[in-house]
């Protein structure tokens, strides 16, 4: 009887280890700007690789499952630049989820610095130095580097079967200037509300 219980417990553990944080249901990119190389999910983490052929954006869609409720999901991504042109900025927008505290990091491969970055409950942005990122940058800590930290996604208020999405964008320079001014206004309004 004890041996059967051990086998059953091992089988349940194996099934639980394969449970996904959220089911990846696909992506959409504006006119082939980016592709999702791979999408991984575990019981508490979302991770994906993105490859951008040019400036643009890609939206990744996820389905909430029962094990997602009442927990935060760790989120990170490796974003590659296939264009050969510098990406001066990047942004992430959430729809149906929020960033939980503490905030994560945005970093590069070290050839170009992150000049500035910021976030709100449903978005984050970074501006890169030099000619812009020509190889890759990291949202969170996909390479398990010392000092870097994943972002956490809060799915409070979501129900099983509902969806949420993550949009990653590398805008053209003039679009980024508009984005920064919009985020500055949102930050000012949020600070004013909290006072």
TrEMBL record:
Residues 1-21 form the signal peptide. InterPro entries: Ice-binding_C (IPR013424). Pfam families: PEP-CTERM (PF07589). Residues 169-193 form the Ice-binding protein C-terminal domain. Keywords: Signal. This is PEP-CTERM sorting domain-containing protein. It comes from Kinneretia aquatilis.
